[in-house]
Amino acid sequence: MNIETLGVIGAGQMGSGIAHVAALAGRNVILHDVLEAAREGGRRTIERNLARQVEKGKVEAGARDAALSRITLAPSLDDLAGCQLVVEAAVEDEAVKRDLFRKLDAVLPDTAILASNTSSISITRLAAVTRQPQNFIGMHFMNPVPVMQLVEIIRGIATSDETTAAVVSLAKEMGKTPVECRDFPGFVSNRILMPMLNEAVFAVHEGVATPDAVDTIMKLGMNHPMGPLTLADFIGLDTCLSILRVLHQGLGDDKYRPCPLLVQMVDAGWLGRKAGRGFYTYSGPGGDRVQKG
Ligand code: CAA
Ligand code: NAD
Fold this sequence. Notes:
The protein is α/β, with parallel strands linked by helices. It has 11 helices and 10 strands.
């Protein structure tokens, strides 16, 4: 299937990254978010990250300008009607995603592919709210999208070979390495990553060490590019908590029980870097770290 125009839902960290990479790969992108401020913020993030790539000599100035001209901000879901593929990257909340896919199903032609960038939620269950579940798939990009190589491809029970082939081929054209896995809670990436991040939160909760000490131990001791609490702040603590709840409920094992400190921080609105405060404090939403936790 030829995908010329791609819709992206959610202009947060992931949606803006997906739009950025798809536009650089020559696709027209319609970027939708419910919030105007998020749409404008998404565009600014894309401009900033493309400028950085131009400065580093990774992208030509002409390619940046062409990519930016291919991205259209869309206030309404109806604006996605002409897309051959829509990648949903709204919040990690099953009710929100189900509602979005129900509406999209009514707007798009029967041939369109619907993909979710969900970190953990059942692709089979999301597909079940649409009329064409064979056209539904998980296309799980990693953060930051312009940098990370992997796209985890998750087939629901009904996903067709044609849908999988189209999405695998698009991921490769976006310069990524697609890897397939089955539809289980948290798939592979977050089933393995989140218990480690949760354990790091427990270490702080139980007073074993400060956030900075935990991060330094894991960075210098295990050669991780970011310590687990810096990474949790980077992902978003709300997203980490939602994923852990899906793992806990879906796999039925208490080893996935979210740390009470994580729950409390999310309750307080300390969602990590995107909120300006998490385990560390940042200069503002999405800003640089200014002091230790
Ligand atoms: N857009 C474009 N380029 C970016 C970028 C962005 N948003 N962020 C960083 N870069 C580029 C930088 O320009 C730099 O390029 P060069 O190599 O050409 O210099 C390169 O990436 C490295 O960046 P920095 O030098 O600024 O910083 P760094 O060396 O600390 O690397 C990092 C930053 C790549 C984010 C690194 O810290 C890292 O890999 N962290 C771990 C990220 C990770 O684990 N992601 C997965 C999260 S889990 C997930 O995504 C799944 C889920 O469902 C939750
Ligand atoms: P984010 O909080 O940065 O952005 C989410 C965006 O969705 C916001 O701009 C919000 O306004 C928008 N939104 C909420 N409800 C909406 C609706 N009904 N219609 C349209 N837009 C709506 O979140 P994010 O980190 O970009 O995560 C988005 C998705 O990607 C989640 O499913 C998350 O699990 C997944 N994901 C996140 C990461 C990560 O590291 N943060 C990595 C891979 C996958």
